[in-house]
């Protein structure tokens, strides 16, 4: 230590600090007094001023709704867009006696008491204070003018422009794309109130509902200064909303229209799928309806008309229509029989026109009462021989049948992104015990083999089962969305691929399907003859009314609405599957005669070029040579 | 008679023993009581200010719990022992500040954090709020009071280095608070009044220089807004106008707990952090504010008593500076929210939401408890 040591004077130090603490204490007292005075000034002297300022705070935060994502078909044709529309809004807080204001609106626009009641209901649904609630949509020029003239009598009433969903394709995509509608009270409870604070519409059905979170976008905000009447004077701060993502579909507008034309005004369903990708190319349920009125709120009468129509236009036959698949599943049953080892491709069955279980007298009829004689697998599929499949089903038993058909997607929800798809029913021993508390009868297995009985399937499931034939068991869930924004839709959660013991088994099933259209005794050979490419398909009929034992189906005795539904499933070209189609024609009676031509028309629209030749991209080296005139 | 006398004695004995139990645990009962009252009150205000966010309240309560544990731990160390660690802590603190300036974590456009992902994340500037006065106290306590010119200059250098480093982050509010905490030690040490006056006079040119060379655009904006909030009522003056409206509309008795319209309708920004006093003022009125100020005064009174009764010079200077700094937090925050001072981003001590500042504050009170409970010849005091 070079420094000299200083003696510490503790007494002096303590004195110095004590003095300074005293000064500090005085400082604290003084400054606290300043704070208290300041608070007194603000809270007592200026109380009135701040109180009113706080009461009528002139700055409001307004949500800005995001623009809903657009929906395009696979070629970029618009299916759903947003159009400006003028609506009449009412702000309760500014209207004062708002029921009286509603009366004035009704009087000015010369409306009736029904509208008055609707307006009142809508106003009551308003959520936040100072929220302008839309009461009337799609104002005409004349209505806007009338409101303008009478504005002085209508406090709190404004004409507001907003973007509203519009479906330029009208009824073409009502069953696949669905529609948006006004958010109702139930939905309101489940919604994220902040995210939807500026939004009045939400996806109600179809893709609009399924992809709601992607289509909706993110809400924006603006802080606005308003005058005493609540009119916005200026925007102070704005956070832009994030528009929803556009949806690019797998559907093709042209094919959709072609499929509708192919149905030619009959009631029914058409689904077309690209087997390699699982992309749904067309999805038709006829009759359909125009979704546009639902967006702004369809009138009660118009809705009742749609709802109560005997043709059931609101009914989505593709996703929710349940039909026994009939003979359309025979190729799948045949393939299952091969894989289960109960038959070989060469196994032959003699058909006298019926099948009898051993030791039973009941005759299970072939559709052809006179019988087809000896039939092997290919002929059985081509002729749609019931006797062969009774025999096959009997050998397989219900349990194995249930397992195989389930793996084909029958009685299952198969779609990736379709709202409200019905699963249908693939019966089993367990199911019957649970449902009816009854044992399974052998006869029920037999009719299962020809797609009758308890079995219930949708046209979409039949299309998917056909796709599985075409792809030899490769599972991709059928889907309607190709891309969400820039993100491709992934094949999430597909069921396990259907792998057979020997992949050749597929070919026997497909062979039979080709014979249906191209074989000499095929049930749909008329349709096959007119095709420039080879089709593999299968017809079917779904009974609407059960026929009693020993009774014959007589079309003249059956009322039109009780006639059988005609079914046909197929894919083409048979050696290079590009499209799989499933068609159901309500009360069409004949799968081969009525549904098959529809299938072919849809296939032609997809596969043929303008000159009626197979498009180059769908041709394989062989298919060009094999094409028959 | 005899037995009665015995019982009286034993009662006294019991009281003494209880007091000595707290002493042995190095806890100052009075300080702890006031802290608990303020902190539990703060949870009610936070519940309202956060829009009834229970998670936030629980988080704050647990921060308070952690802070209390930290306070107890710190109180176990003798001030003498702390004094030995101070120079090293100061150097570490400065090194961390340099590290933050160089490569720190970017939060809210300002770099204030040391962040080792998964290990620790904290603000060295917060740490400096305690190290700063401790260092100056350690330095000045080595010499006789009042400090001589040389010692003052060296103290100032030791204060200015972290001050500048924090200012560069940039964090004007904290840098000024660190500066203040160091300056209070010099003041407590008996800095001559003529130099204090001289420094005040020199402040004007320094302020002008800072305006042009140091302050960032948003900081200038804050000062300008402070000078004339009405000029931009809905841009940068928004906070002050809204908080004044919140406070003023509370009146004498307030609107009632959870009934403050300004804060609950989202007119008041940052209502749970820096502007929480506005929520208190709106919901509990002038009475509530005065009650809180009274609690703060009680707390400070106890702190100053501890300062005067401290035995070593280091302990006296440190305790005095910590107490005065605490009051500065209170004054700056309330002054800023009520429109007396510019908005500098200082939380209201013990009330505002935020774990870091709460833990730092309680660490400071831990030091005060240590100072008070480690005295020798205690029975004479």
Automatic annotation (TrEMBL), chain A:
The keyword Glycosyltransferase does not apply. GO terms for molecular function: penicillin binding; peptidoglycan L,D-transpeptidase activity; serine-type D-Ala-D-Ala carboxypeptidase activity. The gene is mrdA. It catalyses: Preferential cleavage: (Ac)2-L-Lys-D-Ala-|-D-Ala. Also transpeptidation of peptidyl-alanyl moieties that are N-acyl substituents of D-alanine. The chain crosses the membrane at residues 21-41. Residues 268-604 form the Penicillin-binding protein transpeptidase domain. This is Peptidoglycan D,D-transpeptidase MrdA. Belongs to the transpeptidase family. MrdA subfamily. Its EC number is 3.4.16.4. One of its GO terms (biological process) is peptidoglycan biosynthetic process.
TrEMBL record, chain B:
It catalyses: [GlcNAc-(1->4)-Mur2Ac(oyl-L-Ala-gamma-D-Glu-L-Lys-D-Ala-D-Ala)](n)-di-trans,octa-cis-undecaprenyl diphosphate + beta-D-GlcNAc-(1->4)-Mur2Ac(oyl-L-Ala-gamma-D-Glu-L-Lys-D-Ala-D-Ala)-di-trans,octa-cis-undecaprenyl diphosphate = [GlcNAc-(1->4)-Mur2Ac(oyl-L-Ala-gamma-D-Glu-L-Lys-D-Ala-D-Ala)](n+1)-di-trans,octa-cis-undecaprenyl diphosphate + di-trans,octa-cis-undecaprenyl diphosphate + H(+). InterPro entries: Cell_cycle_FtsW-rel_CS, FtsW/RodA, RodA/MrdB. This is Peptidoglycan glycosyltransferase MrdB. The chain crosses the membrane at residues 25-50, 56-75, 87-108, 152-168, 174-191, 196-214, 275-301, 313-338, 350-371. It is a multi-pass membrane protein. It is an enzyme of class 2 (transferase). Pathway: Cell wall biogenesis; peptidoglycan biosynthesis. It is found in: Cell inner membrane; Membrane. NCBIfam families: rodA_shape (TIGR02210). Its main location: membrane. It holds the Pfam family FTSW_RODA_SPOVE. The keyword Cell inner membrane applies. Peptidoglycan polymerase that is essential for cell wall elongation. PANTHER family: CELL CYCLE PROTEIN (PTHR30474), PEPTIDOGLYCAN GLYCOSYLTRANSFERASE MRDB (PTHR30474:SF1). One of its GO terms (molecular function) is peptidoglycan glycosyltransferase activity.
